[in-house]
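Hi! If you just cloned this repository, the fastest way to understand the data is to look at a raw example. We've pasted two of them here, unedited. The first protein comes first, obviously.
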Amino acid sequence: MREVAARAGVSIATVSFVVNGTKAVSEPTRRAVTEAMQELGYRNNVVARALASKRTRIIALLFPADVQRLSRIALEIFMSAATRASELGYHLVLWPTGTSPDDVSDLVSGRLVDGVIVMEVRMDDSRISELAALDVPFVSIGRTAETRDLPFVDMDFERTVAEGIDHLQDLGHQRFGLLVEDLERGPLRGYGPTTRTERAFLQETAARGLDAAVARCAPTPVGGRAAAGELLAADPGITAVMILNDQAARGLISGLDAAGRRVPDDVSILSLAS
């Protein structure tokens, strides 16, 4: 570090602050140290730093390994989290795991990471309770049914559904359908966004005296086409469909068209995920 400090014109302590992220340093000073490190070919030894500071500066982003899908929103979350972590001097690692608490315990107890971000959260998610019991810094993207003392960020799906129905009612619609992804037989059974959206939809339509039907399908155009038939079979008079399964939207429109129902002339479609 002596050579880096001399080249940057700062103290050895300042170089240490920049390398380890242990103290705030002005941006010009940080830049000078970083440039000196690059000029001298200095490579920070992550392992040695972790041993010395007892911190790895690695954040694990947990994503279930048995979930065979990667949505546009998930990709945006990955990239945004990685960018922000880097700005704060951390490394973000995508960590595929199972959905059992043992997988989480193995990761945390090995002191491999300084913190955890949890994705694809179910209403009853044992990973969350395990992290809370292990007393490790974590945050979930999505929430469980019990939110007390839970650090999370999430959409307000209940309000989104209510405002969506408001908008469609203002357009004169009284007969509604909802299309969500079919997750009932897989590892994401009880997935928060789907469960909360369906529950809010049924509660809101019942409270307003509106006709309502729900269809579940695979997140594909083929699934959406089949769901169109299912919705029309449940209520041939449906004029508005809310959708939390954008990958199936094209198939939904195709299926409605095949049944002689044009979008948007005969049926309005409102995406809840965009």
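Ok, and the second one:
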Amino acid sequence: TNNTYQTVYIIRRWIWIFEQSSLKNVCDVEFSTDGHTKYMPTIRLVTGFLVALSNIKLNSYTDAFHVKIPK
């Protein structure tokens, strides 16, 4: 690869991982990174820090932003 990353590709990958995990009844609590600068725009978009996504509604998922802790 030419080592170029676009934020939307990373977001789509994270959504795919979340959806595949949900199909297998695995709960993803969070995504973490190694602090590489390629992830910073993605993290800003996903958290809503000074920016917003117009075409990807992350809060439309029923499990988004909620953690179900089993008793």
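That's it. A detail worth noticing about the second one: Residues 7-60 form one domain.
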